[in-house]
Amino acid sequence: MDALPEFALVRARSLDDVIRARANHPASSLLGGGTDLVVNIRRGIVAPPVLIDVNHVAELRAIRADARSLAIGAAVKLAELAAHPDVTRHYPVVAQAAGFIAGPTHRNMGTVGGNLCFITRANGGAPPTTIASRPRARSATWRRRAAACASPPSAAISRPLC
Prior knowledge:
The C terminus is likely disordered. The protein is built from 11 helices and 5 strands. It has a single domain, classed as Uridine Diphospho-n-acetylenolpyruvylglucosamine Reductase, domain 2. By secondary structure, the chain is mainly alpha-helical. It is globular. It starts with 7 loop residues before the first strand and ends with a helix. The strands form 2 sheets. A 3-stranded parallel beta sheet has the order 1-3-2, with helices on one face.
């Protein structure tokens, strides 16, 4: 792999910071775990001029789970989701699935949002909008949420997905 090209790094501390940075840098990419993004930058597949680090945005790092609902922030690490006591109690299949993704190193770095929204080898390189349009047992709500992952920044971030 080649060395990383030059890019600017914005360290967001709040969701407002993320929204502002995306508005100011529309060609930017969000950086959570970086397990696919950094590799793809090194390979020259993508070259965002700005990376927005979302790892310290509390709203994106939160997990809330009880018997009635489950909310998972996009920057939650897969290992955190797999081990979260309320998730394992109320949604054991979700915790178990998160624990089966990749190996332990990737689970400690990889994020839920990255694994749902990033173009990877696992989905044949198809962008989320293509995956979202496939009707196989996917609800309209699921397709809308998956499509939002690939929407322009203002559309993806400024409207709630739920």
